[in-house]
Amino acid sequence: xxxxxxxxKGLERAVNGAFAKTFRSGLQPVEITAALKxxxxxxxxxxxxxxxxxxxxxxxxxAPEDHERMSRLGPALVDxxxxxxxxxxxxxxxQFAGGISIDLRPDESLxxxxxxxxxxxxxxxxxxTPVLDVNGKRYPIxxxxxxxxxxxxxxxxxxxxxxxxxxxxxxxDGARARVRDLGSTNGTQVNGVKTADAVLEPxxxxxIGRSRIVFRVLAEAQAGTSPQxxxxxxxxxxxxxxxx
Length: 244
What we know:
This protein has 244 residues and is α+β, with helices and mostly antiparallel strands. Helices cover 23% and strands 36% of the residues. It is built from four helices and 19 strands. The chain has helices at residues 3-16, 29-43, 64-71, 75-92, and strands spanning 45-48, 51-53, 57-62, 94-95, 101-106, 115-120, 122-123, 126-134, 137-140, 144-149, 156-157, 168-172, 177-181, 188-190, 193-195, 197-200, 205-208, 211-221, 228-229. It has a six-stranded antiparallel beta sheet with strand order 9-8-18-17-14-15, covered by helices on one side. A five-stranded mixed beta sheet has the order 11-10-12-13-16, with no helix packed on it. Helix 1 (3-16) runs antiparallel to helix 2, helix 1 packs antiparallel against helix 4 (75-92) and helix 2 runs parallel beside helix 4. It is globular, with a radius of gyration of 19 Å. The two termini are 30 Å apart. Keywords: Phosphoprotein. Residues 146-195 form the FHA domain. Residues 224-244 are annotated as: Disordered. This is DUF3662 and FHA domain-containing protein. It comes from Agromyces larvae.
């Protein structure tokens, strides 16, 4: 399997699932991933033998009709794009000067099906944002713990009769995450293995009843900062995953 296949694999699964009915014509999400990959590859700058810098801020421009359809997906689409940019950068040993930001914008000059990428290399602080993806929706993980279950008191509520009212919780300490079953009736699985307590790696899949929950950690630009273009060699930093 080639790099492009690896880069698009995650979003192709989404398109084949919850997103499929949204896109009957026009621009497809996988075309955006391909355009972002090309942008990273063509803008990669060799700084030293062990450091290749790539853009971390992207503006994805498309026809207004395409933008309207993409916007219906909410933040889940952008989260997926950020995740795939991270993975492609890691596979190529690219580095970023700051958190990744992807902005989808309408452009009247573009026709339906077209996409253009504007990118820049911007230095700034990185906010490692843990999220749970459930049926195309994004749920940020609260620092401390986030309860998942069928009951209204849960932080992430599942419409799933196979889930207990307070089924499981995801704990996040700012760098690492783990999932703990809360004595549920049907149990909790991580990557297909039943568990009572397990560490969560990025892209781990939690299965509760019929629900598939994906744990992700996104490298995003920290809110409230005023980053400057990274032009000095000594200021170039690489970010991939939370500090160990």
